[in-house]
Request: fold
Amino acid sequence: MTDQNKIPQATAKRLPLYYRFLNNLHIQGKLRVSSKELSDAVKVDSATIRRDFSYFGALGKKGYGYNVEYLLGFFRKTLDQDETTRVALIGVGNLGTAFLHYNFTKNNNTKIEMAFDKDPNKIGGEIGGVPIYDIDELERKMDRISAAILTVPVSEAQGITDRLVTSGVKGVLNFTPARITVPEGVRVHHIDLAVELQSLVYFMKHYPLDIDDE
Ligand SMILES: NC(=O)c1ccc[n+]([C@@H]2O[C@H](COP(=O)([O-])OP(=O)(O)OC[C@H]3O[C@@H](n4cnc5c(N)ncnc54)[C@H](O)[C@@H]3O)[C@@H](O)[C@H]2O)c1
Reply:
């Protein structure tokens, strides 16, 4: 097994991107891929790709590129593709409902197994094949769930997070604007579309891609 500690975090973050693209190539029967092709597809410059891949012991050959099968084998092991991570979603509102409809299992190894809400009209229902339980039953229902998606109102975020942590959750994908606090050993990734949009607009203004406009 490869020593994952040797891979820098920035590289590790790109692994799922690479994996998804290579898996599609593999399905199409492609045996090799050039760093240029990869770069165009995943929007990472080819120098970075070459550096990333050198950590995996995959050195591209000039005029040949990278062996798709070898890379996929490596990524599967590193990303533990064989083992599905069980995920719970808390808050089946606008955002939560959209996530439940989205099939996360199509391309990777995560699966939303269950959802929770406090609205009696939603409890007992099902969206995208995922059962919706009463939030009061969180501790009782959570079985081998290691990650959670948080799509509740901001005021509920910390309280729910505390309960998730007590139930053994080790990672939270936080869509609420709340800056939640967790004990050491629990990872929180915060996703804010407003920030992403602002950043896009900033780059559009200050780093325009269309050189004719300059
Ligand atoms: N990160 C982003 O880019 C982004 C974008 C839009 C919304 N949001 C945030 O995502 C969250 C959800 O937004 P939304 O538009 O889906 O809201 P929503 O009001 O449609 O949904 C919230 C859901 O949470 C449920 N809920 C409330 N309290 C609960 C509790 N204690 N336990 C379990 N469920 C509970 C409600 O019944 C409802 O179904 C909000 O915090 C919002 O600010 C984030």
Remarks:
- Residues 90-96, 116-119, 135, 151-154, 156, 160, 175-177, 191-193 surround nicotinamide-adenine-dinucleotide (CB under 6 Å).
- The helical segments are 9-27, 35-42, 46-55, 68-79, 94-101, 138-141, 157-166, 193-206.
- The mean pLDDT is 87.
- The chain has two domains: 4-79, 85-194.
